[in-house]
Amino acid sequence: MGDYGEFEEVETSVGNSEQPAEQQAGPARVKLPRQGELIGIVVQRLGGNRMEVKCSDNKSRNCRVPGRFKRSMWLRPKDVVLVKPWADDNNKADIIFQYNSSSIIQLKKKGLLNISLDF
Question: How many CB atoms lie within 10 A of CB 118?
Fold first, then answer.
């Protein structure tokens, strides 16, 4: 065993270095819905790349995952997603983003996620 010299324990805390829980949890920025986009919750998977999503305007839409997102999005019931309704059929939409748990907390704080999880 070699001699590595003397080590001191360095204290970097000047005062109370504990940050409030609000600053520790959640990202600083969250993707918000733009014009024509809605927040929704996956209710049921219908097979393939289709699923039923309950949107923030209290409509249930038949949504699909576009091909460019198929491998990157693994959706299950009760996942929160961002959907864009189709221009020609308002009962169908594309899922364009999936929110993670810390983003869901931020959406609830901002009052954007007020959809009930009771299906």
Answer: 5
pLDDT in tens, 48-75: 889 999 999 899 999 999 887 777 778 8
**pLDDT per residue over 81-99, tens digit each?**
999 999 999 999 999 999 9
Please tell me the pTM assigned to this model. 0.71
Structural domain for 66, as ranges: 32-103
Is 5 a domain residue?
no
Q: For residue 84, tell me if it sits in a domain.
A: yes
Cβ neighbors of 78 (< 8 A, separation 6 or more) are: 41, 42, 117
Is 63 domain-assigned?
yes
Query: Can you give the pLDDT at residue 59?
Result: 92
CA–CA gap between residue 16 and residue 33 (Å, rounded): 38
> DSSP for 40-94?
EEEEEEEETTEEEEEETTS-EEEEE--GGGTTT----TT-EEEEEE-SS-TTEEE
CATH number of the domain that residue 93 is part of? 2.40.50.140
As for how many domains the chain has, the answer is: 1
